[in-house]
Amino acid sequence: LGFSGAFGPNATGPDGYTYIYGGDLLVRWLPATNFRGWPFLAWQTEIMGRTYKSASFSGEDTPIFIPAATLTDWGLYTQLLYGFSYGWVVGLRGEFGTGSGNDVDADGNPVSRETDPFRSNRFRISPLLTYHLTEFSRLRLQFNYDHADFLPGGPDAYTIWLGAEVSFGAHAAHTY
Questions:
Q1: What is the bridge-based pairing of β-strands 17-29 and 103-104?
Q2: Predicted pLDDT at 8
Q3: 128/26 Cα distance (integer angstroms)
């Protein structure tokens, strides 16, 4: 279980500030007769939020006035992983992001959060299969179903990803 946070000014002006906050949880089950950590069942969840208070702005050379605004965004993911055989893991991951408060464009006109590709509602479902080639490397095959209204071609997108990960250097000690 963990919590984190940060607070500080942002670049919008002297009255602008940003809060960033989050929490995470990892629950892992191992049978008493496991082999190098397999089989296992793990549930992991993280949530993160941002409150962004922008200062008002008046252009010196132009008649633009942008009022102060507060934007709040948050998202989370949760995944369930099952290490069913030594080196093999199957899982399902879900992600969601949303927010509140409208943004403004460069001319000071309001922009609805629902039409902003960086802040509109979206979710993703991802089944995945991972193979640990060695203690220092793994391959992951993942299918993503994304739903977001701003996606080109419609609100739904389907992608397949193959990822390779290699670790170098010192790493945490093992219990086996």
A1: unpaired
A2: 95
A3: 18
The alpha carbon of 7 is separated from its chain's Cα centroid by a whole number of angstroms, namely 19
Task: Please identify which residue in the block is written with the tokens 């922009």.
Answer: 111
Label residue 119 exposed, middle or buried (CB < 10 Å: 0-12, 13-18, 19+).
Answer: buried
Beta strands in 55-136 (DSSP E): 57-58, 65-66, 69-85, 88-100, 103-104, 110-111, 122-134
Q: How many helices (H) and strands (E) does the chain have?
A: 0, 12
Mean pLDDT of 80-90: 96
What is the model's pTM?
A: 0.79
50: phi then psi, degrees, rounded to nearest 5: -145, 130
Q: What are phi and psi of 113, to 5 degrees?
A: -60, -35
pLDDT in tens, 59-84: 677 666 667 778 888 999 999 999 99
Q: Which two tokens stand for residue 167?
A: 């670790």
Contact present, 122 and 96 (Cβ < 8 Å): yes
| DSSP 8-class letter at 41 | E
Task: Reply yes or no: is the peptide bond before residue 39 cis, omega within 30 of 0.
Answer: yes
